[in-house]
Amino acid sequence: MNQSGPEILPMPARTAAGKAPVLAVNGIDKRFPGVHALKQVSFDVVEGEIHALVGENGAGKSTLMRILAGVHPPDAGQIEIDGRPVSLRDPADALAAGIAMVYQDTRLAPTLDVAWNIALGHEPGGALFVDRAAMDAEAAAVLTRLGSTVDLRAEAGRLNRAERQQVEIARALARKARVLILDEPTSALTGPECDALHSLMNRLRDEGVAIIFISHRLGEVLSLADRITVLKDGEVSGALPGDAADEQSLVALMVGRAMGTGFPPRAAAPGREVLLVPADREGSIPVRVRAGEIVGFGGIQGAGQQDMARRLFGLGAAANDKAGFSFLGETVRPDGPADALKCGIIYVPADRRRESLFMVHDIASNIALPHVSGWSRLGVVDQARTAQAVDAEARRLAVRAPDWETGVSTLSGGNQQKVVFARWFIAEARLYVFDEPTQGVDVATKAELYRLIRARAEAGAAVIVISSDLVELIGLTDRIIVFNDGQPVADLESADATEAGVIAAAVAARSDAPGALTPAALSARASGWASLLAGRHAPALILAAIILMLASAAALLTPFFLTPRNFASMAGQIAPLAIASLGQMAVILLGGIDLTTGPVISLVTTIASHLITPGSVWPPVLAAALCIACGAAVGLFNALLIVRLRIPDLVATLGTFSVVQGLALIVRPSPGGTLDPAFAGAVLYRIWMVPVAFIAAVALFILFEALLARGRIGARLYATGSSADAAMVTGIRTGRVKALAYVFSGTMAALAGLIIAARIGSGDPQAGATFTLASVTAVVAGGTSVFGGSGTAGGTVLGATLIILVQNVLNQFQVSAYWQYVWTGVLTLIAVGFHGLRSPGQRARMMLHLRRLFQG
Amino acid sequence: MTPNASSSRRALRAGAKAAGAVWLAVIGLYVVSGLISPAMFQWSQLLNILQVASFLGVIALGQTFVVLTGGIDLSQAGIVTLTNIVATSLMLGLNDNIVIAVFACLAIAAMAGVANGILVTVIGITPLIATLGTNSILFGAALVYTGGAPRGEAAPAFELIGTGTVLGIPNPTLIWLAIGLAMAWLTRATVFGRWLYATGANTEAAAMAGVPVERVTVAAYALSSLLAAAGGLLLTAYIGSPSLGIGNPFLFTAIAAVVVGGAALTGGVGSMIATIGGAVFITELNSFTNIIRVSSGTQFMVQGFIIIASVLIYRRLSGARG
């Protein structure tokens, strides 16, 4: 341990053992639009130590860690591993260097199971397939080492916060990480979970792991850390040994002043009660907020403070909340933001980018939006009044920008938050709820925001502030309501509150709280598994049932349906559609779409009708290979546009759609040509009435299903499709996965095109016209989510079968072929709608939107 | 001032440049094609371009509403075809039937648009798939209704709308420009317009600011359908006869016109005036390639590349990163 004494060192302290650092950074500099996030930061960590990194919100801690994890490149400065300079261009580089990060908002692929998430990126096994047994064994070993009991086969998306974190730490250890970065790991853990994590960290330190530990809780920092580095406003403001630090000195280094100063004075005498949320469970307390006071909501993350705030604004589960709450003496139950705003309640969300700002618009329209309907006559906006009101408020709040036509995307986090404040301060609301108002805000602007929030209270509004920064929570507020396990449990006077006191109330075990693993909870989990197992193949099973019913009905009603000839003909039609749909599926699994399927099929038939003709100089196999290469080339072109030039999937493949359709028309402006009968015969050859093309399609589908379930590429498709961020941090090069999917899609479309060419015996520039929609229909009817990340090849093939079957049955009944367009459309809409509304949550959301659409 | 300030001023200038870019392209293409083929410089050819552009122009104005919400409407083609079929079959060449025919077409379009909007905003189906599905249904309905052999014709008085002129300017062109100005005013000056842009830029944030995003979205799809029907009616008045293939080209060109006009398919960015320019550009391009006798295949290819190039050029102009 370091014995160098309590003075604050300007440079990182050396440990007494004099060990060379595993990881060292020198003079790191990083700028983001409008913000100088890191200024000449130097920092190191040695084997077997816990090095804590502390600082206020916006001090640059997360940015520094992201640079170490390879997520952001630094603008300047050097990173050294074992004294050798390295360049970390992406997370794969960082992992290779032995640096693993456990993110605050965990990054697991939600649709993959625990074992696979632990192994992702370095699975044991061969080139194509993963050795599942070895993977499970490795995952089990590392989880045991952590003392975790998480089920290996549990889908990551269904784990709770602590379990997800255990899996992420397991993943880091499975990578033999020498440097483990933990970004606020305890912010969402309960008391016992925190204790477990602390003892794990001590154990890992003893095993020689270098741990970088970010935390807002100075108590745990002081008890765990060997060294502490303090960041303030992007600079290292101090580095000191853990046993030489105390809370006062750390806070002084973090905020550059004594604790409790820098905040505006507290309220003198609060007014009448504005908000009363009655206690709804034994052991919880009512939430009361009076005019003129600021009440803080504290607790570990996700303990209910955010849910309560969003409920006041008519959001979340609260949308169907029957109880309501008392606001200015009346019982209200807002059913959405619009309703809450009408009552005089304003909620300023924590996630500015997602829930507050219109990044492509300018400051003026961002500020004016909620007010324009009030500044209008007969629906026409009073432009002059709008401009004047915006200008006055933006000036009052000192938004720093050349003019109000400046885009908000160019502003710093602090200025963006001021724009949001300006928007809401124009209104005179009775209750303001600020959710993490200073997240990502520079220190100078923070003081301004504190003053503005206090001024709102002084003007007579009731104010609630949610903050995970305890210094801020205590300093800014008049009272603090602490949440624990979903309920408000303590009401503290801020003037007397301490960090330790707030944390104690937040993590105290509650007598009425359900135990972690009661028998009831376990059985509920087991049934969760059962439904999950059914979940993956449920769409395929439903589809199979529909197909069987339809086929039985057809067999009873028409004699021809059951004949081998009819089945053979259907199989021959299913083959090209199923093959094209497999390609489409790979793309949709990534949340994309390939509109070029149809034109590629058309193009291939036209090329084949020139190259694979009777007496052609081209050997048929070579010519066929050339056709398939054309499809792959189209896929490669799409990949270039989407991955390299970053054009959105839709518009890129729309452009290519037209290009490829044009090519097909150039190659053969109208249907014609003759395909070599020998080639057509070979493609259409039947073994005992079963077309070989169909057999090939089935074989392809089995291979694809196996790759999805057990293959490396399958896991990469699922991981990238369900969360590209999660895939990237495990070192998966998501761009390559995407490119591969488009090339595969083009290749499969070309294969389908060859079969079509053989069937029609000629070339036709419109031969594939219906295939784009039909392939998408087959994929989505088969249960693949259009948002990516889940789906089975089995479902897709059944989807293709259903399309052909319905067509066949309608033909049997002499229904006009024109109906085909109608029912394909209807089938698509029903399938997507059905799969999109399978969960009760999705149905509830639908009802909410429906109500908002039709209610006065 | 700070580097931040100068960069945003640059972004502002870039924004103004982006809005005018399509008109520069329109003039540039006109001059270049005129130099290659002097026929383009004839007054009659210019009027012809503006007349042909009007059908696409009206339809693309509708598409702009949906693109501004961050969606896409592929069912406009089906609406145009169905409008053409229904209008001619109801008119049967008789002036007395004009009102009922027009009313029927607009009613069908309104229903289809509202259905699209509900599929997207209530059921939560991605716009591409929802409208691809309704397009298939609408086109199928036209096929089933006609049995593949459309009959009927436009009424003579109705054809005047499509073929007549005022002060030498074709009626469809005047109607298009009038609708265009009205839609520009609707999106720029009204509360609905503010809500429309906000919904497209960030639906979540718009809802959090009290914008009735569900209604705005449904209204956008309804307007898209209604303007597609208006374009289909103008086209029917111009051509006079039914044709099952009449709507097909618009599936692609309506979106192309909007994208060339600089609207972002991600929503919240675009303008009606720029879409008018986009429609002129696409028509000019087709007209020019027709004059120099390029095959239709080449025309398709050129249009595809134009879409891709527009996206890249506008990204550069707006100074957006990545």
Question: How would you characterize this protein structure?
Answer:
By secondary structure, chain A is of the alpha/beta class. Chain A has three domains: 23-255, Rossmann fold (3-Layer(aba) Sandwich), CATH 3.40.50; 273-507, Rossmann fold (3-Layer(aba) Sandwich); 570-818, Orthogonal Bundle (ABC transporter involved in vitamin B12 uptake, BtuC). Chain A has 31 helices and 24 strands. In chain A, the strands form six sheets. A six-stranded mixed beta sheet of chain A has the order 6-7-8-3-9-10, sandwiched between helices. A six-stranded mixed beta sheet of chain A has the order 16-19-20-13-21-22, sandwiched between helices. In chain A, strands 2-1-4-5 form a four-stranded antiparallel beta sheet, with helices on one face. In chain A, helix 20 packs across helix 27 (734-760), helix 21 packs antiparallel against helix 22 (649-667) and helix 28 crosses helix 29 (793-812). The longest helix of chain A is centred in the middle third of the chain and has 39 residues, at 519-557. The relative contact order of chain A is 0.09. Chain B has a single domain, classed as ABC transporter involved in vitamin B12 uptake, BtuC (Orthogonal Bundle). Chain B contains 13 helices and two strands; from the N terminus they run ααααααββααααααα. In chain B, strands 1-2 form a two-stranded antiparallel ribbon. In chain B, a hairpin with a 2-residue loop joins strand 1 (165-166) and strand 2. At the A-B interface, helix 10, helix 11, strand 18, helix 22 and helix 28 of A face helix 1, helix 4, helix 5, helix 8 and helix 9 of B.
